[in-house]
Design a protein that fits this description.
The structure is a single chain. With 204 residues, this protein is mainly alpha-helical. It has two domains: 81 residues, Rna Polymerase Sigma Factor, Chain: A; 89 residues, Arc Repressor Mutant, subunit A (Orthogonal Bundle), CATH 1.10.10.10. The chain is built from ten helices and no strands. The longest helix has 22 residues. It is globular.
């Protein structure tokens, strides 16, 4: 995805700047800083939106595009009291929530999801089964089934699970994104994991 913005002239080199420093510079109209920030953080925001809107990848891309435009417009107000990544995910989450659609419940083959319920999502999902065709097929089925399973979870549970298991955010950062408390995040994450575990038992 290429995001076109209007703003001031490019500033000094940006490669060594922190994300928050880039955000401050972008807020002053530095397009090069914004483009560097976009290159660094866009993949995560798209991944998050894609999991939250799993049945409509086109909508997920639209949501992320819209969220980044909102971010560009709001950067002059960014105070740096949180990580800019957390701030961006908050914008994506709110934009996706505004545009979500009701979904029909879908059956899930929970045997595929068993590693996820053990809290081993990142390891499991990054194992692409290279050199083993059968395992590669299993990984592809895992991704597809994960999307179906997540689409059945309530919105907040789904967001907590994705941000914790796939984006490796802390409870505090997730709470900031979802405008809630770490205690609520822990509870929602526990419910999400428990739901997956229950479904696994039903499909054994």
């Amino acid at each position: 995805m290429v995001l076109t913005i209007d703003g001031g002239p490019p500033g000094p080199p940006v490669g060594d700047a922190s994300d928050n420093a880039l955000a401050r510079r972008a807020g002053l109209g530095d397009r090069a800083a914004f483009e560097e920030l976009f290159d660094r953080l866009f993949p995560g925001t798209l991944r998050f939106a894609s999991h939250m809107l799993a049945d409509d990848p086109v909508l997920a891309e639209d949501v992320v595009q819209d969220a980044w435009v909102k971010a560009w417009q709001a950067l002059p107000e960014f105070r740096g009291t949180s990580k800019v990544q957390t701030w961006l995910f908050t914008i994506v989450q709110r934009t996706a929530l505004d545009r979500r659609r009701l979904r029909r419940p879908l059956a899930v083959d929970n045997e595929i999801l068993e590693p996820l319920a053990r809290g081993d999502a990142r390891t499991t999902l990054t194992d692409r089964g290279e050199g083993d065709p059968e395992r590669a097929v299993l990984r592809r089925e895992l991704w597809e089934t994960l999307q179906l399973a997540l689409s059945e979870l309530p919105w907040t549970q789904r967001a907590c699970w994705v941000l914790r298991e796939l984006e490796d955010m802390s409870y505090g950062e997730i709470a900031h994104v979802l405008d809630t408390t770490p205690t609520v995040v822990r509870g929602q994450l526990h419910r999400a994991r428990r739901t997956l575990a229950i479904r696994m038992e039903q499909w054994r």
